[in-house]
Amino acid sequence: MTHATKAIYRLILSDYVKVSKGSVEDMLYNEQDIIQSMDKIEVIDFHQTLEVNGIRFWCYTAGHVLGAAMFMVDIAGVRVLYTGDYSREEDRHLRAAELPQFSPDVCVIESTYGVQLHQPRVVREKRFTDVIHNTVAQGGRVLIPAFALGRAQELLLILDEYWSAHPELHNIPIYYASPLAKRCMAVYQTYINAMNERVRAQFEVSNPFDFKHISSLKSIENLDDVGPSVVMASPGGLQSGLSRQLFDMWCQDKKNACVIPGYVVEGTLAKTIITEPKDVTLSNGLTVPLNMQVHYISFSAHADYGQTFEFLKDLMPPNIILVHGEANEMGRLKQKLLAQLPDKNTKILTPKNCQTVEMHFNSEKMAKAIGQLAEKIPKEGEHVNGLLVKKGFTYQIIAPEDLHIFTQLSTGNIAQRISVPYEGAFSVIRHRLKQIYESVEPLDDPTESPPALLVHDRVTVKQENTKCVSIQWSTDPISDMVSDSVVTVILNINRGIARVGVMGEGVTEEEMERTAEKVVLALLNSLFDDVKRVAGEEGKMVVSIDGVVATVDSKSGVVECENEGLKERLRTALRRIKSAVKPIPLQKSFFASEEEKNFN
Q1: Which of 305, 382, 452, 465 has the fewest CB atoms within 10 Å distance of its CB?
Q2: String of b and e for 4-38 (b: at least 16 CB within 10 Å)?
Q3: Averaging pLDDT over each range in 208-222, 333-347, 428-442, which range is the top one?
Q4: How far apart are CA 29 and CA 21, in angstroms?
Q5: Quick one: how many helices (H) and strands (E) in the chain?
């Protein structure tokens, strides 16, 4: 919230606690809760941008009351403007609500006055002062029920200025009977710079809130009710408090007047007397005639239809959500906006309280390369390899070495180790692996125990004892594939399945093809279980998974299958087998370079 709002927040909530102590048994919160909540409030300046979990937001002046703000929220490029209570009309002390410099995707806007129009401010002020002047001139009393914040300060400025310009009224007292309004006045004096040019200019000469003709009234007992007077008292709805006490005292005298200066809620006494009923019910339950004059002169700082229409016409948001209004008024406002806004495709919603509004937006996702990857601009078609990092709603591509520089993350290696039962000679494993991998190197002196091998520069095979061997590697896609094939070879030695003979210089091309087919069959069996050769068709195999059948040609690398998912899995498996056993010196097998295109 803004700085001024935080200052007022403490006063308003403390006033609730004070009022509730005598009338509410189970309060929503107490004074201690308010004190604790103050430390949790983060203040924001107008136009200052903050970001939380990737969500950016900033605020504009709303013009409703001191400190009121409209918030613009940016979520993954989708901008939502929440006006709250706002007014586009500058009054005696507050600036008008600002117009954001760009259009939001969604505007959540108040609809308090629906299609109603306010009278011009000059007309309203004249009506207000004329009613008061005429009433006190005839010896009557004027009651102005007003809320403690916002309208009270506005009306007091008008009255003090009018009294200064009319010496004949100087002997008629003006009171404002609201302890909360008095405390709020100190906040207004503190945040003079948040107000309009008129008040700031006047403050250079004297404090505009240091009233010359207005004094505060602590309670009804302190009121010297022996002649004409003007009393501004809270609450604005006349439902209780000092304003209700004064209404009960003055309502039967036709010389007196009650001026309702702002928006009134259905169900309150203030709303009832606007219709000028013949009788009213007092606080004590008695019904008496309503003889006093009742005038409704709205100084409400809520936007009327004219302000709302001009505001939306300037912004032209594609989506509008109307809130803070009675259902009928919201409905009429929606229809009038749809008829008069230039863009006939504007979507307007009028949700009920607690109703969820769901909208879908398509936005283009863009990842930025940073660090080492940003040093060289890639050519068209060139691949950029790195880690994709999501932070909030933004994406970045970072080299693994730069991860700890630009994020709070770091890279790490996962070392895996498995033990495989094996009771044969370790030299057999070495012999079999050399038939498959070109790079099989001893790690230690072969005469010493235990012997170990490094396969494909990635996987270590070590004889732990006479009953098992261990396989160790650092996890990555290729090493995982090599380790799988090594495990398969060792298990097949025990089972007598994969019997690959030594290929000397006299090995024929046909024998080499058959050897390659055996390797493919063994590795595919380890991955898909049900893999069989096709009788009479050299190099072809059939793979069955859950009733779905695929045909694989080990020579050409072609996979035929109606199920695209299984087809892609088999093509991927064949590519990985190629990577794992690439060093096999087969000249015209399905691994040969002229056939590589079948795997891409």
Answers
A1: 382
A2: bbbbbbbbebebebeeeeeeeeeeeeeeeebeeee
A3: 333-347
A4: 11
A5: 15, 27
∠ Cα 422 428 432 (to 5°): 105
Taking a C-beta distance cutoff of 8 angstroms, is the pair 411, 405 a contact? no
> In terms of DSSP bridges, do strands 229-233 and 141-145 run parallel, antiparallel, or are they unpaired?
parallel
Relative to beta strand 257-260, strand 293-296 is: parallel
The number of residues in the chain equals 600
Say how far apart CA 580 and CA 571 lie, in whole Å: 14
Say what percent of the chain tops pLDDT 70: 91
Q: What is the pLDDT of residues 472-522, one digit of tens each?
A: 999 988 899 999 999 999 988 877 644 444 444 556 667 766 777 777 777
Residue 484's CB is within 10 A of a number of other CB atoms, namely 18
Take residue 69 and report the two structure tokens written for it.
């703000």
Full-model pTM: 0.62
Note whether 215 and 94 are within 8 A (CB). no
Is residue 409 classed exposed, middle or buried when 0-12, 13-18 and 19+ CB atoms within 10 A define those classes?
A: exposed
HEC profile of 159-175: HHHHHHHCHHHCCCCEE
With beta carbons less than 8 A apart as the criterion, state whether 518 and 488 touch.
no
* Cα–Cα distance measured from residue 523 to residue 487, given in angstroms and rounded to the nearest whole number: 10
Give how far the C-alpha of residue 383 lies from the chain's centroid of Cα atoms, to the nearest Å. 33
Q: What is the band of 5 on the pLDDT scale with cuts at 50, 70, 90?
A: very high
Judge whether 170 counts as a catalytic residue.
Answer: no
- Give the Cα separation of 90 and 199 in Å (integer): 12
* 3-state class (DSSP) for residue 366: coil
What is the C-alpha to C-alpha distance for residues 132 and 143, in angstroms, rounded to an integer? Answer: 9
Distance CA 599, CA 572 (A): 8
